[in-house]
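This part of the workshop introduces the protein records we will be handling. Each record describes a single protein and holds just a pair of labelled lines. Instead of coordinates, the fold is spelled out as a row of discrete tokens. To make this concrete, we reproduce a full record directly below:
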Amino acid sequence: MPQSPLKNFPGGKKPKFGFSMYWMYIFIILILVGMLWMDNDVQRQTVDYSEFKTILAEGGVESVTIYSNKHLAEATLNEAAAKKHIRNYQSGTRAVLECDIPSGDKVQEMLDQMTATGQFNGKVKYENGSSISSYIWSFGPIVLLIVFWIWMMRRMSGRDSSGGGVFSVGKSKAKIFDKDGPVQVTFKDVAGLSEAKTEIEEIVEFLKNPQRYTNLGGKIPKGALLVGPPGTGKTLLAKAVAGEANVPFFSLSGSDFVEMFVGVGASRVRDLFRQAKEKAPCIVFIDEIDAVGRARGRNLNMGSNDERENTLNQLLTEMDGFGTNSGVIVLAATNRADILDKALLRAGRFDRQIYVDLPDLNDRVAIFNVHLRKIKTDDSVDVDLLARQTPGFSGADIANVCNEAALIAARHDKPSVTRQDFIDAVDRIIGGLEKRSKITTDEEKRSIAVHEAGHATVSWHLRYANPLIKVTIVPRGKALGAAWYLPEERQITPTQALLDEMCATLGGRAAEEIFLGHISTGAANDLERVTKQAYAMVIYYGMSERLPNLSYYDSTGQEYGFSKPYSDERARMIDEEVSRIINEQYERAKEILRQHAEGHGKLADVLVTREVIFTEDVEKIFGKRPWASRTEEILSHKALPEASTTEEKTEENANNGDSPVAPPPLPEE
């Protein structure tokens, strides 16, 4: 049975070939090449009638062509005559003389006389038309102008706007997905986020079964805004909606509305909602909506046109303006909700703001289970332990950990991915690759060991300091030393916890001053973090003794215009309070180190010898911590391998030092 010629095309349909401007360019180039090819072997020269008669009388003319209707004659010369009468003649080409004649009869009379006297022996031809090239040169530009004008009219009228180009710049760039499209993500692929999924699933359920809600007088929300830190799964939730919904799903980014031409953004918004209304009920998803949704009136371009504000105004009108958009649901995602315009966030436009937070312990377990489906692991992999070792990780971070573990196992030709591979992957992602080839002198190595042992000693004797897991002086990434701690996942942080963290952070610099007699640039990052944390305590959290219960944090994102919200005298008091807090914690760290100087020295010696210490090493020297956390108790029953690690609270600085703790986040915006 013969095969259908359409089998190679998706769906058995022939591809549609539309008109393209490139075809016209190719056609023009072919015409020009043909004209050059036709005339590249001919050298022409125009002479007057008297000179034409003289050249004929001299001989050397092979043939004469007379165009009677154009009063034109052409004489083809032999090579000898061409060299004499054609300027810059090139041998091997055909030489032609052109001359305007009074009439064909007079030229024929003259040729008859020259033939009788033997001056002319060539052929005589009569033609009424002209050459093809002459016609092309005469009428070709006019034809091209007409064709170009017709093409322009078609593009401007919209009949041929699907091909793109400058006239389709105002068209929406949204991609349309349906249940049979390439997006096959469902809610089963979204781990955790139970509250966010509940609200999103309700929107999908309304589209599938609207009578369940409309019978009670309910109306579907017009919009839902997904807000949260990067990598928490906002776009993944939108993909799940596209995979679950049985209605058209329009997907585009906020930057797709932005263009250099005036009015393009508003035009694309109008075209997007026009298409959405035609396919209603449907869902429109705008990722990174802050690209066009910033609050109006904050730009400094006084009196100039703001294309972004025009786009936002059109978006506000389309979402809930004079005309209603029934059946069009708008989903949007951003991690900067504080800078969005208030008119965009009001009820009737985005009725729901769904906060997608970083996953907690249970959510991280579920996320690990989702990403481990496609990875071949052995029985040593403990998902619960991995989840506890990755506090603060987003869903994207966990996906990266699983992928990196698979790559590490493949690099070592292992048949499956082991627990050690996952732990090495966390080390690799957080701290970077180990750089054992980096050259450090014995003095530098000792200084780094004293610094790291100072962090470990101080943090071990503070109640709210994060539990120590691992400290190393092997260069990793951009840092010469690194410390791994396992922070407690608190919802609120007391003042003493902030002070203990600052004290532990300053333990490295204090150890250098006490046990080495000098300080180095290795604590630059420690000092930066402590300074930011102290300023946050004073001007954000109101934890200062002299300035209690005051917060100068602006959650609206307006940042108080062009001036500070406090006087110069108040600024001086803030600086004094920050200096007092830091100095007190620095002296506190030095006092702890003096009390445990012997244990600190043993830790530093172990670090110099082995280049790494673990929790059990510190326990042998100082004993168990009296304030063991729930996480520490669980980890004590699940012994970590030598390369175990948790979230690394280290950052590089100007001289590659380390810092064991991170400042707390600012208040929720």
Q: What stands out?
A: Residues 1-17, 159-167, 637-669 have pLDDT under 50 and may be disordered. DSSP finds 23 helices and 14 strands in the chain. Residues 111 and 388 are 109 Å apart (CA to CA). The longest strand covers residues 61-67.
